[in-house]
Amino acid sequence: MTQTTDRPTRASKRRSLWSQPMSRTVRTTRRGLAPWMLLAPASVMVLVALGYPLVRQLIMSFQHFGLEQQFGRPAEWAGLSNYQTILTDPYFWSVFLKSVLFCAVTAGMTMLLGIAFAVLMLRLNTLVRAIFNTTLIVVWAMPALASLTVWQWLVDPRSGLLNYFLTSIGLDGFKNFHWLGENFWTFYLIASAVIVWASLPLVAITIYAALAQVPGDVLEAAEIDGASSFQQIRRIMLPMIAPVISLIGVLQVIWDLRVFTQIYVLQQAGGIASETNLLGTYVYETGIAKGDYGVASALAMVILLLTLILTGRYLQMLYRQGGMD
């Protein structure tokens, strides 16, 4: 008969070690490392995709590029001369001022109309609201080039629907009127309409979703106290969703400050690019059309600085909304 031993096997020892509770230090360390481990893959992908182009652009902003560099000659170090060229150029400040004013107008109109559309959707019945939401989503999802083709047809000097409508009501001065080529005021009028039309759906749907989350008992209490529908919206609902409005407003300013596609396509139809340049198209014209990649990179860094300032404000508002300040 074989004699059994009481010594534990190696497997049982391993199981006993795993079954022992972890120390408080180990648990704290693992809990502290978990968020960083989850963020690591996305952070590495962002650094690989954006880190090299950003560093390359920064280096190019301190270099001089000309015709010789296009044939393989190494770029010459220019120091701060590219930035000096930009900051002492009156045309840059003209473009900068136009960009800021254009951004303020388009972002302001988008936010005002977005809030109005969101309040309107809140008052509609279910079927009409579903149709309205679907229409907004289709407008927002439409490719930019496809929508711009429709806009160019609407403002065409000879066969455009806008000129036809204006002349049909007796405004003969708009016969064959070239909205995109007459002057930069009419160009920016059409461009701002295009930008607002493309940005409005996202703003309206986002604000509507926030309004729909306002507790009903708060509104019922306000109604019992005699508050009208307008007073409920202005004094209760909009203040309660102010963080959402502020966040989407900051993002809208960032997007409109960096607009490029709509302005570039409309410029090709209008033919007055030098008078209607904004920061995005100015960088493209300087770098691609003129081949001055050093100055174009410096311009891009200036735009990046403005974006970072606005993004810093956006992150600050995010922290405040989350109660982490």
From TrEMBL:
Record protein name field: Sugar ABC transporter permease
The keyword Transport belongs to this UniProt entry's keyword annotation: yes
Residue ranges annotated for the ABC transmembrane type-1 domain, each copy included: 96-314
Location(s), subcellular: Cell membrane
Keywords associated with the record: Cell membrane, Membrane, Transmembrane, Transmembrane helix, Transport
Source species: Microbacterium commune
Domain of life: Bacteria
Family, similarity comment: Belongs to the binding-protein-dependent transport system permease family.
